[in-house]
Amino acid sequence: QVQLVQSGGGLVQSGGSLRLSCTASGSTLDSYAIGWYRQAPGKEREGLSCTSGTDDKTYYTNSVKGRFTVSRDNAKNTVYLQMNSLKPEDTAVYYCNAQLLGPDYWGQGTQVTVSS
Q: Are 81 and 49 in contact (CB under 8 A)?
């Protein structure tokens, strides 16, 4: 059973940066496909990025491309979402997701609030 624990959210001013962490226990993440999602109040969950478990390539949705970057630290069994140039519309609860062939696993979510 994989457990994902997130950290790093908070309140930041528009134009600022935050880094979210997603740390796994129960399995190593290096072969898992990793996704980052967010859900704003009253809106559906939105997929932000997908990182392949085979070649580690990451694809980003247009709304975050060029501002958000995903990275892995296999030694720490952690995946990061670096968020730069944050905008008020980035305010949401952010989730990480890990999947390898079978069931997928979710982090508990972390709140990111961007003030104008």
A: yes
Residues paired with 20 in a beta bridge: 81
Question: How is residue 59 written in tokens?
Answer: 């694809």
For the chain, list residues with pLDDT below 70: none
Dist. CA 79–CA 72, nearest whole Å: 4
How far the first Cα of the chain sits from its last, in Å, is 40
Residue 95: per-residue pLDDT: 98
The pLDDT score that the predictor gives to residue 55 is 87
Alpha carbon 53 to its chain centroid, in Å, reads: 15
CA–CA dist 89, 86 (Å, integer): 8
Beta bridge partner(s), residue 24: 4
3-state secondary structure the chain: CCEEEEECCEEEECCCCEEEEEEEECCCCCCCEEEEEEECCCCCCEEEEEECCCCCCEEECCCCCCCEEEEEEHHHCEEEEEECCCCHHHCEEEEEEEECCCCEEECCCEEEEEEC
